[in-house]
Amino acid sequence: MTSPDGSGRDLAPADRVGRVLVTLADTLGDDFDLPAYLQQLTQHCRDLLGVDGAGVLLADTVGTLRIAALSGADVRRLEQAGLTGGDGPSVIAFRTGEPVADARLDPVEARWQSLADPARAAGYRRAHAVPMRRGDQVIGALSLFSRSARPLQPPGQRLARALADLATISLLQHRALTTQRLYAAQLQQAFTTRVVIEQAKGVLAERHDIPMDVAFTRLRQQARNSNRRLADLAREILGAAADDPPDGTGPAQA
Predict the structure, then answer these.
(1) How much is the pTM?
(2) Where in the chain is the domain with CATH 1.10.10?
(3) Considering the domain 32-152 in this protein, what is its CATH number?
(4) pLDDT averaged per 10 residues in sequence order, the chain, 254 residues
(5) What's the CATH architecture for 181-253?
């Protein structure tokens, strides 16, 4: 049975997990909101895994790991410290493509010294990081922080990995769909541009009584000489063609 606020916190664990998995898989709609999706992922981690903080770090277009979503300001300080030092659990998980399990922050292990101060200030004692990975492609990392001295147990680790894996697959699908849509738009633009260029070639061929291939050569040469895009020059020629005098002066000269 659902809770009064509709959050699902009173559902049996399996049902709650099922609902979350469905939510995380839904990235293909036109109304998909990436920041909201990532923020929701951090909340799901807190709700299902019983951790106190969570963060999502994603690689940008040049492969630099950046903070994408956080459950709170205290997690930001931890993640930022790890990024700055280049040795935080999330950074290591992203770099190696393998989980970082049971990183002890209190007392802090030597390898996590960069996190000592922000962890102490926020009361975090344990960290766990999972790479967001699909095959050989690692797009980021999911990090979990706990104020409990008890490490994340194997069932929780497996669920964390499942959440990270599903989010990764869903984000890659969204990226592919976005790329496909962009390609489709670019392809349509190419089709439209081709028609414009063909029409401009026809104007020049008729005006100068030259073959179409010669008209195209002249059109391309004028575009280069004037440092303009071919399509822009073609549109200018079409727009001015009706008003150009018969001797071919003006933009339709080409």
Answers:
(1) 0.71
(2) 181-253
(3) 3.30.450.40
(4) 39 70 74 83 90 94 91 92 94 96 88 90 95 95 94 92 92 87 82 85 89 87 88 87 55 53
(5) Orthogonal Bundle (1.10)
